[in-house]
Amino acid sequence: MIVWLGGALLVAFGLILISIRRQGLRSHGTVKYPKSLPSLPVIGSLLHLGNHLPPHILFCNLQKKYGKLYSFKMGSHYVVVVNNYEDAREVLLKKGKTFAGRPRTVTTDILTRDAKDIAFADYSPTWKFHRKLVHSSLSMFGEGTVAIEQIISREAASLCQTLSTFQAIPFNMEPEITRAITNVVCALCFNTRYRRGDAEFQSMLSYSKGIVDTVAKDSLVDIFPWLQIFPNKDLDILRNSVRCRDQLLLKKLKEHEAAFCSETVNDLVDALLKAKLSMENNNSNLSHDVGLTEDHILMTVGDIFGAGVETTSTVLKWTIAYLMHYPEVQKKIQEELDVKVGFGRYPLLSDRKILHYLEATIAEVLRIRPVSPLLIPHVAMKDTSIGEYTIPKEARVVINLWSMHHDEKEWVHPENFNPDRFLDENGHRVYSPSQSYLPFGAGIRVCLGEALAKMEVFLFLSWVLQRFTLEVPEGEPLPSLEGKFGVVLQVKPFKVTAKLRDVWNNIDIAT
Ligand code: HEM
Q1: Phi-psi region of 472 (alpha: psi -120 to 50; beta: other; left: phi over 0)
Q2: How far apart are CA 373 and CA 392, in angstroms?
Q3: In Å, what is the CA distance from 444 to each residue of 94, 105, 249, 393?
Q4: From atom 34 of ligand 1, which residue's Cα is the shortest distance away?
Q5: Alpha-carbon distance 373 to 432, whole Å?
Q6: Helices 294-325 and 356-368 meet at what angle, rounded to 10?
Q7: Which residues are annotated as a binding site for heme?
Q8: Distance of alpha carbon 428 from its chain centroid, rounded?
Q9: What is the ipTM, given to two decimal places?
Q10: How many whole angstroms from 119 Cα to the centroid of ligand 1?
C-alpha cells in the first residue's frame, strides 16, 4: 500500500512538473503552440476523441473548432494533426529530415522485431541504407521496364482467365485480386508464384488478415503500453500471425541461402543476401554502423508484403466499386482502350502515355478514397516548428490526407467522383491539379513502392476492362463507398459479375 501511494505521489509530482514546464514554455512571448483539445492527466484527450467517427473524418471535422493545425494528447504522447497542404508540405518536404522519425508502438514493435524494417524504423543511417538497398533492388527488376511488366502481365492474364470461369456468376473479386497482387510481390521477393488453393498461400492470407486486423489501430495498448500485462486477444492474434509469417519468411531465406550464387541475383532476397555477405566479407565501403542482420532482411521483406499487397489490392477494389457506381466512366475507359489499344494485343506500360482517361480515373480514386488517409505518423526528431507554431521534439505528426483530398478550396465538389478533374481541355492527363494531392506521401518517407503500385494498378485494370464489363449482379446492392478505417481504408466486401465483352467470344483472353 505504502509503495503504491509512493508511486502515485511520484506520478502526480511528475505531472505537475511537466505542466509547470509547459506553462513556462507558453509564457515565453515567442513560443506559440498549436491549439489543443482539452486533456486530462494520464488519459490525455481520449474523452474528446472517443467519437464513433473514423479518425480521418473526426480529425477533419475538428478543424472547424481548432483550426487546420491542432494538437491533442494520446496518453502521454503529444500529437499534432495537419489538415492542409501548406503545412503538410513543410513537414514532408521542406523539413522532411526533421520530421522523418516514426513512433514506436507495442503492435508495430511486435510486427517488425523492434523496428528492424523500413516503414516503422526511425530515421537513422541503418534505415537510410536499407531503404536505398530495397529501392535499388526494385529498380534492378526493371521498374518501368520489361521484367516487371512481364511479371504483372502474367498475373493479369491469369486473373482474366479466372474471371472468365465465373461468367455471369456473381462473386467477390477480393481473393483473386489479393492472389494476383501477392504473386507480383512473391515474384519480386522470392522469384515464385502461387496457384489457386495453394496451402502456403492460404496460410499467407490468414496471417495477413490477422496482422491487418490488429496492428497500428491506435488500440489502447499502443497508447498505454503498460496494458500489455493484461490478457489481450488482439495481441495474441497479432503474435500468432507474426509467428506464422516469420516461419514462412525464414524458410524462404534459408532456401535462398542454400542456393545463393552472387553472380545471379534473381530477387529481392538474393539482393539483400548479397549486400549482407559483401558487408560481412568487408568488401563493401559501407560504414560499420550500418548493420544488416538476418532480422533486418526478414523484416524488410515482411514490409514489402505488408505495405505492397493490402494497399495495391485495396486501390483496385475501390476502383471497381466506383466503376459499378459510375458505369459511364467504365464505358469511357473501354472506348479509350478499344480505340487506342484495340483487341489485337494486350495493354502495355507504354500505353500509360495514351490512356489518359484510365490514368485520370486511377488518380481520382486515389484522391477520393486515399488508401492511407493519415499516412504513417511522423515524429519530430528535434524541437522545430510548423508555420508559426512551435513543435516540440518527439511530437507525433499526423498528416490528414483525407482533409487535403477533400478540401473545398482546392477541389470543386470534392465528394463527387469526377476523373475529368485530372484532365486538361485536350483530354490529356494533368498530374497535379492541386498541391493538395499526395496519395503516396512525399519527401524522404515517400512510399517506396509508388512506381510499382502505379504500374500494377494500370496493367490490372487495363487488362480486365479490355476484356470484361463489371456489373452489379441482379438483386445485389451497389458496393458501399463508406470505407472501413484500419491499416488501410478498406472497402467493404461486395459482389460483381464480370461479363466477357462480345468481341472476345472467340479469342483467347490470356493473349
Ligand atoms: C497504390 C498503392 C500504394 C499506396 C497508395 C501507398 C501509399 C503509401 C503511403 C501514403 C505511405 C506513407 C508515407 C509517409 O508516411 O509519409 C507509404 C509508405 C510506404 N510504402 Fe506504400 N503505398 C502503396 C503501395 C506500396 C507498394 C506496392 C510497396 C512495396 C513495394 C510499398 C511500400 C511502402 C513502404 C516500404 C513504405 C514506408 C516508407 C518509409 O517509411 O520510408 N507501398 N505508402
Answers
A1: beta
A2: 24
A3: 10, 21, 27, 19
A4: 448
A5: 18
A6: 110
A7: 447
A8: 28
A9: 0.99
A10: 8
